[in-house]
Fold these 4 entries.
Entry 1:
Amino acid sequence: MRQQKIDLHSYTSIGIGPKVDVLLPESEEDLFSFSEQKIIGNGTNLLIDENFNSNLICMNHLDSLEINENLIYAESGVLLSRLIGTCIRKGLNGLSALAGIPGSIGGLIYMNAGNIGKNSSLKKIRCFTKEKGVYDIDVPREKFSYRKSPFSDDVIIVGAFFEMKKSYGERVFEDVKKAILNKKQTQPIFEKSFGSVFKNPESVSAWKLIERCGLKGKEKGDAMISRKHCNFIVNRGNASFSDVMYLIELCMEKVYNEFSIMLEKEVVVLRGLNR
Ligand SMILES: Cc1cc2nc3c(=O)[nH]c(=O)nc-3n(C[C@H](O)[C@H](O)[C@H](O)COP(=O)(O)OP(=O)(O)OC[C@H]3O[C@@H](n4cnc5c(N)ncnc54)[C@H](O)[C@@H]3O)c2cc1C
């Protein structure tokens, strides 16, 4: 198994983080040699403190993709964009509505991004734990909820089995284009961010609450609450972990004071010691 120093400042989509030692499993066998460490996928839903200095396991080298007619096995490090590109070429539909989410298959399932846990194309999930080793499970659909999967931190998602609907490449391409266009119009997808900062409370969108508190465009250092979508914080240059945390806490405080609603973070925050 490879070990490498990775600069999380350039690896994560928000562009914040230290250089750390990262273990890069390249096969299922490699997973057996880990002790308890934090997993990262493609780093698109993470905010990592510059003082964070634990080892990480990065799943992006476990990235083989097997296709047999409309059946697909994707290892956890396969990016959704690559899987969707393959589906366009092969004329396979089922995941097009998720196009534009920049995560890996492992991150997607762990975060239940795009509600993947309820997607009927996803048939089985391959998992790993120290106790059980590698094992496959049927998708426990009822246990997935909004931005939440049933997996605890000791489970590594190794891969996923999909059964896609046969279609036509042009048709799949059109569906994908529609999903990406919708994202382009509503989200700052060309700026550095980690996607939505907060989960939407039950009856209202988090961005509306933040906007109503007058926080649109609010800045701290190079971090800014996006003018395009108030539930995004963008890094316009050299924003630090504390700049972003300041804005996150400000949103939580103002929204609570104004509406008595406690916003819950969607972004996964990895803090360093003493923070
Ligand atoms: C511009 C932009 C748009 C976005 N749009 C959306 C959207 O529309 N909908 C949406 O839901 N999300 C969206 N996101 C958020 C993000 O892309 C998703 O949550 C994505 O699924 C995270 O995947 P990742 O591989 O980057 O995971 P990471 O950010 O690397 O990790 C996220 C979490 O998943 C865990 N994890 C990752 N891989 C594994 C694994 N193999 N096994 C166990 N745990 C694992 C990590 O420990 C961490 O807790 C967006 C982000 C950006 C930057």
Note: The chain has three domains: 2-61, 65-186, 206-270.
Entry 2:
Amino acid sequence: MDTLYAQIADDLALDIQQGLYVPGTKVPSVRQLSKQRSVSISTVNQAYALLEDRGLIRAKPQSGYFVRQGANDPIMAPPMSTGSEPAVVGKSELIGRMLSVVNGSSHTNLGAAIPHHSFMPLRALQTHIQKVSRFQSQEVFNYQFSPGYEPLRKQIALRMREVGVRVHSDEVVITQGCSEALSLCLRSNTVAGDIVAVESPCYYGFLQLAKQFDLKIIEIPTDPQTGISLEALELALQQWPIKIIAVNSRYSNPTGAAFSTEKQESLFNLAQKHDVKILEDDIYGEIGFAQSIHTVIKKFDTEGRVMYCSSYSKTVSPGLRIGWCIPGNSLKKIMDLQTFTTFGPASVSQYAMSSFLQTGHYDKHLRNLTTLCRDNIERVTHAVRQYFPVGTKISQPKGGYILWVCLPNNVNAIELQLKSLKKGINIAPGDLFSNSEHFSHCIRLNCALPWNDELRNAIKKLGELISR
Ligand SMILES: Cc1ncc(COP(=O)(O)O)c(C=O)c1O
């Protein structure tokens, strides 16, 4: 549930969008609205500050708040992508440049999709790490073999019910982040040369993982709002011996697209018809905005075909390295593979995460995080509209905290990245997210950063670099 001020801001934003208040007209005064909604003056002030940040209203001294010109202009969304034929992945060197400036650097991190530390429940994590290492030291400092710490698996199995998945805790494997989950699923289901179908654009880490295992990637045309095109996917399934379909069904990295529940079911049916496995990466799934999707493809899996992967890296802390997979009928292979490669993630992280979940504070944290992310997505969207050149297209994510921005075609995002790094700003160039050259003019922006002058100025500076 949203905070009160966010609800009030949303209601007014809807009125503006629907033309109840046209640009130039005055919205209710702070006092009027506080009376109308029976809320405090400070709640209305917070709602109006948010609407100002979103670029919907502006304050006129001594006169009140007015709807901004252009407040209800539609945002131009990036177009459907075109896809490409199966090919081995390249481009790994580009990723190093983006990641190398993350640790210990003073750059504004609009590049890597990492939540700023103020978005993480640091105090609670400190407390739980201390607690488990003090009171369960023998277990915490020992091995925790695959499939991982049972109480944590039980907690995850229970939480999966909220998205329609009923699994036993023995079907859950705790992994070293979502990365290990994806890696185990790929390795246990493919051999070199196999073809994996992905959305276009898609998470760069997945492309690079496929490269490590000598797999070929076929990019399927994808809508930045609704995700992979099932028609195009079916054609590809008819034409190529695809082994796995890998998707972010809820809140794609990088576009924020989400599949409706109906689409999730249709994708499952398609995979069943062609006897192909699905690798579902739901890492942003719990950060859904209004009208978020409360199901996953795994819900429709009656036969162990879907390998579901996720982690707490985006919601709690990437440094804990706690992820999980529910790999269906690949369970045995995956447990063997994990046992004989890593044994599984650090015990202290598993115990601490379980202890944190047990308090019940995770849901409250998620609600706050989701509001923060949604507000920031809107603020950054507004700043991009304000400072970037005409013709810029911006995704409208349904969840998560990243924006996909397509710049005018003549902009080279890799050159932009080099220039912006010199100005202390890190961005992710679109080329990372595809094996093709289709996104050379696009960038991905991380919005899980505190909204302040530094961030606003960084976006303004980027706009200037693009327009030069
Ligand atoms: C879509 C997606 N999947 C997986 C990962 C890797 O997650 P983890 O840090 O839990 O290994 C990321 C990280 O950015 C991601 O965006």
Note: The radius of gyration is 23 Å.
Entry 3:
Amino acid sequence: MPSNSEDITGVLYETDVQTVGGGLSRDLGRLKATDGTKMELVWLNIVLFVILHISSLYGLWLLFTASTWTTFLLFIPAVAVTTLGISAGAHRLWAHRTFKANTPLKLILLFLNTFAFQDAVYYWARDHRVHHKYTETDADPYNSNRGWFFAHMGWLCCRKHPAVVEKGKQIDLSDLEADPLVMFQKKYYLLLMPVICFFLPTVVPMFLWGESFNVSWHVMALLRWCISLHFVWLVNSSAHMHGMRPYDKNICPVNLSFLIFFRFGEGYHNYHHVFPWDYKSAELGKYSQDVTTKFIEFMAYLGWAYDLKSVSLDLVKQRAQRTGDGSHPVWGWGDKDQLKEDVGVTTRSHQRSG
Ligand SMILES: [Zn+2]
Ligand SMILES: [Zn+2]
């Protein structure tokens, strides 16, 4: 069962800003403005991304014109489990430690994470911890102050800003280094990734249901990977720009209805940057109905996931009222119950909606 604890693991971040005696806030101030450093392009990545996107468009055409029914029906679930390898695995389990997992669940999530090919969990989590700690500064690997495209995928097309490298080296990764499964994936990534992300999704449909090589490769390997990449990238780009900020109006991350609609998780990005240790990456009730949260809850039901961390309603409410932009459906300034200044009514109304 979720443990409603607000204590954090030493990984996270908001309290760091308040308690490090100004060290981190000084750093943030120094890093805040993009310093005009010209990024050195990595042409190999650019060429590979161009090839990937042209091949994926061809895959999309094949999906509707040449694929077998089995491939057609399994395509969306395949994208969903791919995305799960990032959202439940690299993000909520390893980067933020929002819950604990037994060995079988860790193996499943490491397999799905390799299926998603966004680098080994160890490096993904390091970059993501830097992203949370130095959001919207030059040390943020996907700094959205450099524009939508940079935050989306441009950061993968150029060498890292020196501040990203410097701060990345200072991030505590001892918990990941103590996890033999994470270190196994890191050590053998260049062998595991091509087999799991590209070879398996090509040959399995060919042998199990007679799909052609052309469709298997372009649809189940490339298009599946490409779409899952964009789902995750949208969290770094659009979810740092255009949407509501019900929990903290002073930070860039937003709650983005477009991503919330697809229900793969991580659409409540304003909430997530305020309360990154919550396994739901979203508030309670109807605000947390995404595939990733349901997956973690199902694993908790099986006993494979445990010590799920969450945030008390009271803390969420206080924060929304103190720093939110007023767009929270219950605790925003525009809420008709709250205009009556009747806290009891507000609380009841939230319970109804949950
Ligand atoms: Zn973010
Ligand atoms: Zn995060």
Note: The longest strand covers residues 100-101.
Entry 4:
Amino acid sequence: MTYDFETVVDRTGTGASKWQHMLTANPDVPAGISPFSVADIDLKLAPEILDGLRDHLGDVVLGYTVATDDYWDAVTGWFRQRHGWAVDREQIVLAPGVVPAFNTAVRAVTAPGDGVIVQTPAYYPFFGAIEGNDRVVVRNQLVLQDGRWRFDLDDLAAKAADPRTTALLFCSPHNPTGRVWEREELEAVWRIARDNDLTVISDEIHFDLLMPGIQHTVFSTLNEDAAARTIVCTAPSKTFNLAGMATSNIVIPNPELREKYAAEQGRTGFFTLNALGFQACRLAYTKAEGWLDGLIDLVHGNHELVRSFLAERMPEVIVYDLEGTYLQWMDFRALDCTHEELKRIHEQEALVFFDEGAMFGPEGEGFERMNLAAPRHAIAAALERLAQAHGR
Ligand SMILES: Cc1ncc(COP(=O)(O)O)c(C=O)c1O
């Protein structure tokens, strides 16, 4: 099967939030410009999903929906085949999204006033899930070692030792830095979690998006203790561009922890699956693997292009290795622009609408996150506009 990874899908006026934000930032953007911000994909949907949904819609009744055997087989089959991860269906709690899930998890496993650790810069809804639920954000800032983002384990251990700190809201692969944590790094984090009895809420939504040669380890598979203290949040939404389908699979091997999570989620009144989302997930996990492999090739090539282009035309910009996700983290600080200047040059002159680093916490100031899940020619054109707007 050959896939179309070339067509720019113009989502103006379709309700696509990313495109809407772009037009709010700059109402004069001409047609054909992609935004490169929010983490969804500006490409056609995998035909296997689209055709499957069309068939399904032929005589569908969109009533209250529960998971079917073939849904569970699709999800557990995907985990097994793509990640070597054996999951029993009983261990999975369905949720309407990973953001709702980690909000629920924070409430389920911590008490108001507790500290929850996040590794910063961090996916911005992490802060909301903690502060919005009257818990306290405990920052464990990532550090650069030889150009690679790493955990500061001494700082993590010191913060975890505070008895008021009871959970770690963990991001693996890491958004926004694009790191895929190695097994040894995960084990070091796990030892600190075990020694201080932290529950680990592990957001692994990007875990299918691995660049060639990179391995991901699911946190709960490290060992029995890790399995017992971890809530793993997964979804097909980043991988297959199904975020609007509001369907995610939360894996909680420990029955007590699962019960706590399910009870808290029950209090939100969520009880029925999205009738199309669950079909889309099933189709994605059983039929669209070839499309995903093509997407990964595209993103990897886009990353190489960004790196080589900027090395030549804007060598002050640091482009970090992309190990996972389709989100490119870049350091623009050497350009010596204020935040406002950078925003103006990018959005009003270059017509690029990256997610500003400061969204991920003050640790991200002067950085930018560029979404690489777009056609190669759109990335190339954006880079050219970027360089010219900076006078290069
Ligand atoms: C780390 C991370 N978690 C969760 C989400 C969104 O999850 P959902 O759309 O399932 O709520 C994103 C989207 O970018 C993300 O990067």
Note: Residues 39, 97-99, 123, 171, 175, 203, 205, 235, 237, 243, 248 surround pyridoxal-5'-phosphate (CB under 6 Å).
